[in-house]
Amino acid sequence: MTAVDVREIREVESAALAWLSAHRGDFALGDDTLTTEGPVDSTWKPLGELAQVCSTVRLHTPPSDPLHDRAAELLDFAWRQTDHGELFLSLQRLEPFAAYPLEVYSVFTAAGLRHPGYEAAAATVARSRGWRLTEQKPTRRLGLLRAERRSGIQRPEDPAQALRATWLGGLAEPWAFERSAGYSLTHVVFHLTDWGHDPHGVPPDLAGYLADWLPPWLDTCLDAGMWDLSCELLAVAAGLPDPPEPALLRDSWPRIAAACYDSGALPEEEPERGADGSRGPEPDFLHCYHSTLTATFAAAVTLARLTGGGGRDGHRAGAPLRRHGGQGVPR
Predict the structure, then answer these.
(1) Crossing angle of helices 100-109/86-94, nearest 10°?
(2) Is residue 328 in some structural domain?
(3) Angle at 33 between CA 58 and CA 138, to 5 degrees
(4) With the C-alpha atoms ordered 288, 254, 218, 195, is the resulting torsion angle positive or negative?
(5) How many domains does the chain have?
(6) How many CB atoms lie within 10 A of CB 256?
(7) Helices then strands (H, E): number in the chain?
């Protein structure tokens, strides 16, 4: 039986991280960052996702690994873009009941990067009825509760209620799987496992359901050339209590590797090919940054699982943080 090609997964991660590093300027926050009409999905969202993935890579690689340093540099870049957390306080004053500032900020707290002033202001708002009664989809609510806990905000709301109202938590009929359900279920697992750090955060009934049905869902997405969602499903497979089946990894990762451009970028979906079989130029930043991030993330958690790293002890792999003025800076 052919073994899983760890080197191939590593090459995908390394090339994707190199692309992210080369395009770090595209993640920079612009002049419209602090406007109520600002395009959050093309400013704060990409920056927060970059920070989340780089935090995960950093935690899953030893300081001696070049990928550790590259991830730490990008994480530090992302933190500096927020003016070391000061912009979160400005956002909180501008939109006190907006959830996205806390969601993005919590990514940095997981890496030891904090802004006490923002946390105090956010905690004040979180105690209000307006915050508690804000209507949100269950998957978003579950993520926000995780963000609160990451940021030191303690409220009595039970995450289990939000979990069981999600597509995955309610154990929807497996044949009802489609794109939106796929993205919902992957993020439910990311929230439950703290982005791959705690595989045992997935309840047994959900873990069994995913063990049965994730392989055919993944195969369907791969056949459809849905590379972004495929990588998210691979990250889920690596984050479950039981490690993924070798056959699943052997079948999936060569297809992901083949879908990547020479630059390391991965398109969200397989582009239409020309008459000569070529697929044209690399997509622009907004159409491949997220899938390139998910490829990096999926590779990091998969390799950690295959080599025995990651999980709750994954934090030990990261370099210690220097404390300065109440804020941590990766070495």
Answers:
(1) 160
(2) no
(3) 65
(4) negative
(5) 1
(6) 23
(7) 14, 2
Its domain, for residue 264, covers 6-270+281-317
**CA pair distance 302, 240, nearest whole angstrom:** 11
DSSP string, 122-142: HHHHHTSHHHHT----HHHHH
Closest by Cα among 146, 147, 176 to 163: 146
User: Dihedral, CA atoms, 133, 42, 257, 191, nearest 10 degrees?
Assistant: -20
Tens digits of residue pLDDT in 176-202 = 999 999 999 999 999 999 999 999 999
- Give the Cα-Cα-Cα angle 154, 34, 330 (nearest 5 degrees): 60
- Give the pLDDT confidence of 77-129 residue by residue, as tens digits: 999 999 999 999 999 999 999 999 999 999 999 899 999 999 999 999 999 99
Cα–Cα distance list, 273 to 61, 228, 276, 278 (Å): 37, 18, 8, 5
The whole model's pTM is what? 0.91
CATH number of the domain within which 161 lies: 1.50.10
pLDDT beyond 70 at 163: yes
294 pLDDT above the threshold of 60 = yes
pLDDT value at residue 329: 27
Q: pLDDT at residue 320 above 90?
A: no
Per-residue pLDDT tens digits for 19-41: 999 999 999 999 888 887 778 99
Burial 78-96 (b: 16+ CB within 10 A, else e): bbebbebbebbbebbeeee
Residue 81 counted as domain residue: yes
Ramachandran class of 177: left when φ > 0, alpha when ψ lies in -120 to 50, beta otherwise: beta
Question: CA dihedral defined by 193, 196, 200, 205, rounded to 10 degrees?
Answer: 70
Nearest Cα to 110, choosing from 328, 324, 290?
328
Tell me if 275 is assigned to some domain: no
Cα gap 159→142, rounded to integer Å: 6
